[in-house]
Amino acid sequence: MLGTEAIRCVALDLDGTTLNSQGKLSERTRQAIRAALERRIHVIVASGRPVSSLPEEVVGIPGIRYAVTSNGAAVRDLETGEILREYKLTPEAAEEILKLTEGMDVAYETFIAGIPYAQASYVADPVRYGAAATAVSYVRRTRKPVEDIRGFIRRHKEELDSIDVVIREGKEALWKKLETQVEDIYVTSSVPQLLEISYKEAGKASGVRFLLDHLKIAREHLAAFGDGDNDSGMLQLAGIGVAVANAVPGCLAAADRITGSNDEDGVAAELERILAEF
After folding, report:
1. d(CA 231, CA 254)
2. CA-CA distance, 240 to 246, in Å (whole number)?
3. pLDDT tens digits, 227-246
4. In degrees to the nearest 10, what's the CA dihedral of 163, 50, 237, 211?
5. How far apart are alpha carbons 18 and 26 in whole angstroms?
């Protein structure tokens, strides 16, 4: 691992990491990001969110150009709108996911061309499916409700960026089933009630690695920040992997450093540290 003076790129998870528990960007964190950009450090958004639901208060910061979205299913140039790399679930995988979860007390989301669609009952009452109360407004604001979501997925199975299974109980058992019984998929999780499924070559680490190659930056020059299982690979890839204090155990174990929580401006504190030693 290189010293902090070598950092040329920063990859930021959003929810639970860069954004606070209210889903907002603090002024201190905004200023730390701007300071990094002023030092000619590339700042990449690396999120499980599809592009259409990325918060303007982050991607609107001048200088943030690239985003890894939908857990690496798409890598985008936000300035030009170009999709630099894209993966779709195979139709066979989509069918197998639906078969494995048939009859279970679950809801579904699916992303198509960066737009999230979700089971109407989940959009109406996210908490019933295990979502935190603080996530309700985000779900209702960003998801397009669909009554027959399973039928919708089948009708669009050639176009799916990813499928999320919203599950309140039995998540770990279903995760194992999906990984052992469905081919060509990558399974991860960003929050307790979600299993997020995309093509096998996806993942934040894969997307960030692609952008590092695009920018001609070695991985040792990357600092990555996260809190979820879906961030662990990205933190392991980075020269400096930083977990916020509220991260899940797997993410904490993958990190080189642990900073304050997302409600304590942990990302800002570590960026300030990096810049002070730059």
Report:
1. 9
2. 18
3. 999 999 999 999 999 999 99
4. 130
5. 9
